[in-house]
Hints:
Layout: H1 2-20, E1 50-52, E2 55-56, E3 60-62, E4 67-70, E5 73-76, E6 81-84, E7 89-92, E8 99-102, E9 107-111, E10 118-122, E11 134-138, E12 150-151, E13 162-163, E14 173-181, E15 196-199, E16 206-213, E17 220-223, E18 226-235, E19 242-245, E20 249-259, E21 273-275, E22 292-302, H2 307-312, E23 320-322, E24 327-331, E25 334-336, E26 342-344, H3 352-357, E27 358-361, E28 364-366, E29 372-374, H4 381-387, E30 395-397, H5 401-404, E31 405-407, E32 415-418
Parallel strand pairs: 1-4, 2-5, 3-6, 4-7, 5-8, 6-9, 7-10, 8-11, 9-14, 10-14, 11-15, 14-16, 15-17, 16-18, 17-19, 18-20, 19-21, 20-22, 21-23, 22-24, 22-25, 23-26, 24-27, 25-28, 26-29, 28-30
Antiparallel strand pairs: 12-13, 31-32
Amino acid sequence: MKKITLMICLLLTAAGVNAQQEKGIIGYTNWLDNWTEFKPHKAEARDANQILAGNITENTKLLKRNVYILQGNVYVTNNAVLTIEPGTVIIGDAETKGTLVITKGAQIMAQGQETDPIVFTSNRSLKKAGDWGGLVILGNAPINRFGSVGSYNMDLDPALTVYGGDNAAGNSGILKFVRIEFAGKKVKGAETFNGLTVAGVGNKTILENIMVSYSGGDSFAFYGGDVNASQLVSYKSINDDFKFTQGIQCRLYNSLAVRSSYLSSNKDGSRCIEVKAYEKKSETDFTKKSTLVSATNITMLNDSENIKADIEKGLIKEAVYVADNTSLELKRSVVSGFNPAVLLDSQTEINGANLKKIKFEEMFFNQCSGNIFTENKSDNSDLENWYGNNIFANVYSHGENKETFVDIFNARRPDFRLQIGKITASSGR
């Protein structure tokens, strides 16, 4: 009888913990343990003994026993499959802007393990954001540009960087337990690379447990396609943590964005989540699906120890930006330490149709200087009244980071889950 009673108590305790942590990233244990690295500057790397350069035109396997250096733009072409063993290290060459491109029709099978992740990093002794290019995956899923195709130009070969098509169920491979560090190099006369660029990729592609840290551009950039992604981590990106555009249909789950007042850009256009319909309106086919993002259990925070002072200095902007003609459904998520939490494009009319497309439900807004605003409009009472309705079950709080999260200042193994009991905080705004 005692054993049965004890088991019931344990089950009820576990259920209670899960219920109380249902906002923001979730898990009975800290799923960031073992495979992530929050001090990549100090991580020691072996010298490269293999070179990756030019085109990879046939099935190729990268082995853990080697260390590979990406020299220049490396393309996986000809429908080839690039397989990477768990624990393999690939170094992006800073001098030649090493970049790995998985072209349309090709695949990457990078399936690391929780205790043996695959690592893409910089070859500089003093590593910094933007040391090398990044990882680019191109597929044949729908985008909303005319002709249903786009090209990820930068300084890449335009013939090898075409993406888009009609296969929403396309499969560009697997990225699982992968880290991408110090990518996002600025290209002269062009823009900045991203840590991971996913363009026209279909929903059979597996994107799970991926950490992008110290990216000089966006951490994760999604251009069209139909994508499922979970347990993504963006850590101290210069630009956006998660960018969505060109008609992507994305379902993002249980993911984390950590920004820094002094490292992340405080300029317009740099946010945790940016949702846009297009990059260039003149190239957009509005008869096709517009961007739709459904994000659940996302934690977005600025890790400052003095949020109020950093806001007053102008170092902190909004966490989420929603452009016109797009849809965002953000549920059971945490937004902590921003100015404001959410900003809607000035072109977005506040009416019933748009409010049905922009949803914030069961949210935890904490320590934000304002919650949901329309761009260039100081009076947000209409939005506050709408999203403050009890039917949406949004919670508002003003707790310090160290009180709000389990252990975010642990240098080696931070825990960004919400403190037990915090979701019962006051709903006063």
